[in-house]
Amino acid sequence: MHIDARTLPDHTLIEGDICIIGAGAAGISIALEWINTPYKVILLEGGGFEYESQMQDLYKGKTTGQRYYPLESARLHYFGGTTGHWAGFCSPFDPIDFKKRDWVPHSGWPIQREELDPFYERAHKNLDLGPYEYDAKYWQAKDPTMVSLPFEPDTVFNKIWQFSPPTRFGDKYKDTIIKAPNIHLYTYANVTNITANEHASTIKEVTVKNFAGKEHTVKAKYFVVACCAIQNARLLLSSNKQAPNGLGNDHDVVGRYFMEHLEIKSAEMWLPKADPLKLYAIDFGRTKARAELAISETKQREYKILNGTASFTPLEVAKNQPAFIDLWTADTAQRAKNFADFIKREEKGKNKNGHKAYQLFTRLEQAPNPSSRITLDTDTDALGMRRAMLHWELTPLEKRSIRAIYEIIGQQVGIASKGRVRLLEYLQDENDNSWPEFTGGGWHHMGTTRMGTDPKQSVVNSNCKVHGISNLFMAGSSCYVTAAAPNPTLTLVALTLRLSDHLKKIV
Amino acid sequence: MTPAENNKISLTELLLGKSNTETDAKSIQNTLNSQVEQDFKTGKTVMVKGWVLSVTEARQCALYSILNA
Q1: For burial by CB atoms within 10 Å, which of A75, A101, A235, A471 has the most?
Q2: Residue B32 has pLDDT above 90, yes or no
Q3: Closest CA to A236 of A373, A73, A56
Q4: pLDDT (tens digit, 9 = 90+) per residue, A250-269?
């Protein structure tokens, strides 16, 4: 059932069993799990069903530190959330990503990879992915022309990515959600405050506002915040009437450990003869799976580096492409042209016989860093809520890791007599910890309400429940302890399905 | 690789051995190729202007540079 919150009488009281705040990949994934249950689920979406500049403006915020995209460019504020413009890249985290690594400060999840496996498999259905198969051999058996580079697998292995169509949750699940009698979707219902009891140990209600000037109250037994990593932290920090530092923030952890994926051109690989490298190539809209080069757990331990992967783009194409960080502009028409031109150049530059030179592009986890964080600005948005501010901060470990990854790959290329690798200039001086202007992220936000067992160092427990608050849960990538190399959507949907199962046990 | 290598005699000896009398280009090439392969396998690599090269390759580059200086 769908209700436009602008049409309700002012100060309407809405009541249900579970209140989900945010209707993106996480919020919709939970709601789908509760269809045809005896519970009344309130699903609150700040926007409507289409992109609106006024709604998007609520996501604006200042950034400091490492150069970053405008915040309003990274998330979409309407039903379906950022799946409205995601690219569909999916791969599970590696087992090492969940482990405590003594060379990666603040690493170590309270859950391990095998606990997520059944949920990854279920998440595949939500995202219209193929079988839960990430062994390169499975895909090579289907297409023997997907030949591996002959590297030592205990050093560099083929990490498979699968591609969602990409599923636009807003388009795909709108009818299902609206037709579900027990799912009450409210659009134009921006949550601006969460109200707890006097001791901030239980949530009583949330306040929703919209541009029609209406303010409503939602009461439920359980609340799930699924607004994306920046907004999740913003909402907790803003809800400070019962807890002066914000809900769940007794130990000043909310908003900290903001993580992105470093996505940056890093090296070139020159081959003795042209090779299409089909296993590693992507044909957007058609490729079901492809590999990126990844460094084995053994080598990560030996070199004490972060987890990251390398993908290939024909050098003659890559050299003419602007950096991701320069693609987005405030001008809508120019922005559309920039992205269209980017894709056009990629398509035009492809040669089915392959290329002799490729650019190697890194996808690297950022080390968890308490100084990389979301805080609140004094400036407020049009609904009176303090805006989010991002301070994005990298450490020397990220740069040392990228350099080491290409030294390792360079050695493997040499052993295999497949050519040679050349690191880009910014990586050549091992004493230089600065980052070039073209350094960018993957538009991925993670880690602002991190999971852990110690309330002094984390915000949620292993079930995504906020420490010290009996009925408040966080959903999505804000719960990540580390970022791994893969794009976050698959893992955040898996983690959300796990949360949903937990809620079903306790409700 | 050390500064002491920075001359024609040292580099030639390091590349082909002190008692080397090989003059056949093909044989020299085969010797160097197997050394390059062995270098990569044993991690004897060096970065030269960003290129991940085997030490043998880097020595060849240095020798070429000296001979053409």
Answers
A1: A235
A2: yes
A3: A373
A4: 999 999 999 999 999 999 99
Of B40, B50, B51, the CB nearest to A415: B40
Length of chain B: 69
CATH number at A228 reads 3.50.50.60
Is A180 inside a domain boundary? yes
HEC string for A446-467: ECCCCECCCCCCCCECCCCEEC
Kindly report whether the peptide bond that precedes residue A276 is cis, defined as omega within 30 degrees of 0. no
Q: Which residues of B touch A422 (CB under 8 A)?
A: 49-52
Mean pLDDT of chain A: 96
Host domain of residue B26: 3-67
pLDDT, residue B2, reads 81
Secondary structure letter of residue B18 according to DSSP: T
Predicted pLDDT of residue A318: 93
Q: Per the CB < 8 Å rule, is A422 touching B43?
A: no
Q: Where are the alpha helices (DSSP H) in A57-94?
A: 71-74
Q: How many domains does chain A have?
A: 1
At A7-46, the pLDDT tens digits run 999 999 999 999 999 999 999 999 999 999 999 999 999 9
Exposure of A450 in the CB half-sphere (CA atoms within 13 A): 32
Chain B CA closest to residue A155: B41
- For residue A434, tell me if it sits in a domain: no
pLDDT in tens, A121-143: 999 999 999 999 999 999 999 99
CB contact under 8 A, B39 and A414: yes
All residues of chain A having their beta carbon less than 8 Å from the beta carbon of residue B40 are: 411, 414-415
Size of the A and B interface in Cβ pairs below 8 Å: 43
- Residue A397 belongs to some domain of the structure: no
Residue B20 has pLDDT above 80, yes or no: no
Provide residues of B within 8 Å CB-CB of chain A: 36-37, 39-41, 43, 45, 47, 49-54
Taking CB atoms and an 8 Å limit, are B50 and A410 in contact across chains? no
- Residue to mutate among A407, A409, A422, with most B CBs inside 10 A, is A422
Determine what percent of chain A is predicted with pLDDT higher than 70. 100
Q: Output the pTM of the full model.
A: 0.96
Domain hosting residue A452, numbered range: 1-88+168-255+445-507
